[in-house]
Amino acid sequence: MTEIINPKHYDELAKLDPADVCKRAVCIYDDLNNCYTLNVLGSDYVIYPKKQTIECADHSDPPKDFLSLFAIHYLLTCVETSPSGKWISEKDMVGGVTFFRGPHEIPTALISDNVNNSLEQFNALGQKFNGQKLDMGDAAFSFKVTERIPMALLYWQGDEDFPAEAKILYDSSLPKHFALDIVYALAVGLCEKFGKSFVA
To answer: Does an H or E element contain 2, and which?
Structure first.
C-alpha cells in the first residue's frame, strides 16, 4: 500500500512533549524506544516519530492503513475533552454535506456486502469488537475507537425493495479533534477493518 502519511506529521509529533500527548490522547510513551502506543479499536498501534514508522503490535493490520493515518493525527490534534454522548452523521458536521460525497463518500458497502444480509453475522461482528448494543436500526453497536473517540455502527437488513445498509455515526465531539479529511480517513479505516473482519 502506498504511504499515506506525510513525513512532516512524524516530524511534528517528534517535537511535541510526550507527557502532554499522553494526557490528551490517553496513550503510553516508551522513553527507551521513543514510541507511543495507542489502542485503536482493540489493536495497539505503535508509533515511532523519529523512525517515521507505525506498527500494529499484534500484526493484525497493515502498517500503512487509514487507521494508521487516523492514529498519528489523533496524537497530534486530539483535545482533552469527554465525548458528548450525542450521535451525529458525517453530514451533520460543518461542511460535511458537500465534503462527504463523490470521492469522499463513506464506503459502508464494505460492511453491508460482507455481512450477507444476516443479523446473526452483524451481531457476531459487534461482539468480536466488544461492541455495546444500541437500540437503533435493525441492529447496532457502539464501539470505543480510542478513549476519547466513540462511534456507532448501524445495520438494516435488505428486502426486495431496499438493499442492506450499514451506517456509521460519530460522537458530536469528533469535529473538535479533527478536520473532515481525517474524519474520512477514520471512517474508511473502520469500514475496511469491519468489512474484512465479519464472522462467516
So the answer is: none
Residue 161: pLDDT over 90: no
All residues at 6 or more sequence positions from 137 whose CB lies less than 8 Å from its CB, including other chains: 154, 155, 156, 167
**Residues 6+ away with beta carbon under 8 Å from 43:** 56, 57, 58, 60, 61
Type and span of the H or E element at 197:
none
Residue 119's φ and ψ, nearest 5 degrees, are: -65, -35
Report the pLDDT value the prediction gives residue 2, as an integer from 0 to 100.
44
Q: What whole-number distance in Å separates Cα of residue 40 and Cα of residue 60?
A: 12
> For residue 129, what is its C-alpha cell?
469488537
Judge whether 72 and 13 are in contact, CB under 8 Å: yes
Q: How far apart are CA 108 and CA 119, in angstroms?
A: 16
Amino acid, res. 121: Q
Please give the pLDDT value at position 98: 97
pLDDT at 1: 39
State how far the Cα of 195 lies from the Cα of 174, in Å rounded to an integer: 22
Domain boundaries, the chain: 7-77, 87-196
Q: Are 100 and 180 in contact (CB under 8 A)?
A: yes
**Which top CATH class is 87-196?**
alpha beta
